[in-house]
Specification:
By secondary structure, the chain is an alpha/beta fold. The chain has 10 helices and 8 strands. The strands form 3 sheets. The protein has a 4-stranded parallel beta sheet, sandwiched between helices. One of its GO terms (molecular function) is L-serine ammonia-lyase activity.
């Protein structure tokens, strides 16, 4: 959608991709619905899906599972908004509350998935099938715009949306289109993780903000900045505690 106001402010032609119009009100519905559709095709309609989420990923999973008629459980940390709980109930999802932070909810979801062969853990952002689903927005943009964009701007939390845009641009032969990722200060785990891996063999933890730990992913030999809490004044939902390992491997 063309934005007259932003175009006037910037002196450029600005278009907005309104992902808030997705059934679960965020871009995450694209990738997670694609993942769930594939899971049902591969494992049958009796599967049980489980996802750990602080909000949007859980809403997307519940909405997609309800549409595709499969069972879904959403593990949430304490303190989630009542509107989120109401939406999950409307979508017939089973809600489990565990811990104060996303990491604690994720641990429980992983444990529940390990203990039941019929349960599939739905990833929130670090999964190629999600990126494949998110990439569909670039195919839509190409069909909707008369010209190739000069640049694409996107928000970055864990990196799932950014990876989906990269995949989409490759699919549409838009490799020459610059992609600018934007993070909120106070939850910029991707930025700090890139800095940690900039010089091979040297990790400078002194440059990290207070309260941020370094996690070494031994399988991929990558160092990740892990935020124990967010200090972003925008919203805690605008960030992830640490970035996608798959996204980091690309860079």
């Amino acid at each position: 959608m063309y934005s007259p106001k932003l175009s006037e402010i910037t002196g450029a032609s600005i278009y907005l991709k309104l992902e808030n119009l997705q059934p679960s009100y965020s871009f995450k519905y694209r990738g997670i619905s694609h993942f769930i559709k594939k899971a049902k095709e591969n494992h049958g309609p009796s599967i049980h899906l489980i996802i750990a989420s602080g909000g949007n990923a859980g809403l997307a999973a519940a909405c997609a599972a309800h549409t595709l008629d499969v069972r879904c459980s959403v593990v949430l940390p304490k303190g989630v908004a009542e509107s989120t709980l109401d939406f999950l109930q409307q979508e017939k999802a089973r809600v489990v509350v565990a811990g104060r932070h996303y990491v604690e909810a994720l641990k429980l979801a992983q444990e529940l998935a390990r203990n039941d062969d019929n349960t599939i853990l739905v990833p929130a952002y670090d999964e190629p099938l999600l990126w494949e689903g998110h990439s569909s927005m670039i195919a839509e943009v190409k069909n909707q715009l008369d010209v190739k964009p000069d640049a694409i701007f996107c928000s970055v939390g864990g990196g799932g949306l950014l990876e989906g845009i990269i995949v989409g641009c490759k699919n549409e032969n838009w490799d020459d289109v610059p992609i600018i990722g934007l993070e909120t200060i106070g939850s910029d785990c991707f930025h700090h993780s890139l800095s940690l891996n900039r010089t091979p063999g040297h990790v400078d933890e002194k440059k990290l903000p207070p309260g941020v730990d370094v996690i070494h992913d031994k399988e991929n030999d990558l160092y990740l900045a892990h935020f124990n809490s967010f200090s972003s004044k925008a919203s805690s939902s605008l960030g992830a505690s640490q970035p996608s390992v798959g996204m980091m491997k690309w860079h």
